[in-house]
Amino acid sequence: MQGTSVKIELNGRVLCTAGTSGAPGVLTVTVNQIVTVKPSDENCLESTNLETQHSLLIGGLVEGSHVQWMREPVVLHADDLVGIRIVEGLEPDKPVTRWEESSAESRREQRYQLFLQLEEEFRRGDS
Predict the structure, then answer these.
(1) With helix as H, strand as E and coil as C, how does 33-73 read?
(2) CA dist., res. 80 & res. 48, Å (int)
(3) Rounded to whole angstroms, what are the CA distances from 46 to 9, 33, 34, 40, 52?
């Protein structure tokens, strides 16, 4: 079933065409800006000691499965131009990764295992 898709371009080059193929779901196109203190200057927060990284992520949730159209975030640089075009009737590319949402029981077990790790850490006095 076709619906609308989202064509993503970087500097005029098509990266992918993403979409849910008309199925129930959510599509996200995210540009991240991450500002960190340079590793050698962890105690100094002056603006000259900061590093900035930008990246582009394309993913979503389709019929209960997490999907991504790029294996890794796309690294962006100054003057890069990201284009997002909504297109009608164009079948999206197949996602490069797909994984199922974990069950409530599985998520509870994961939280319990984290609880046990944290409990042990705090009993030892680790920070």
Answers:
(1) EEEEECHHHCCCCCHHHEEEEEEEEEEEEECCEEEECCCCC
(2) 23
(3) 35, 18, 16, 13, 13
Give 13's contacts (C-beta < 8 A, 6+ positions apart).
none
Residue 63 φ/ψ, nearest 5 degrees: 50, 45
Give per-residue pLDDT as tens, 8-60: 999 999 999 999 988 899 999 999 999 988 766 556 655 567 889 999 999 99
Tokens 């209960």 identify what position?
64
Contacts of 71 (CB under 8 A, 6+ apart): 96, 97
Helix (H) or strand (E) holding 103: none
Cβ atoms of residues 97 and 16 within 8 Å: no
pTM of full prediction above 0.85: no
- Please check whether residue 2 is in contact with residue 22, taking contact to mean a CB–CB distance below 8 angstroms: yes
Written as six digits, the tokens of 43 are 């105690």
d(CA 87, CA 91): 9
Q: How far is CA 50 from the centre of its chain?
A: 23
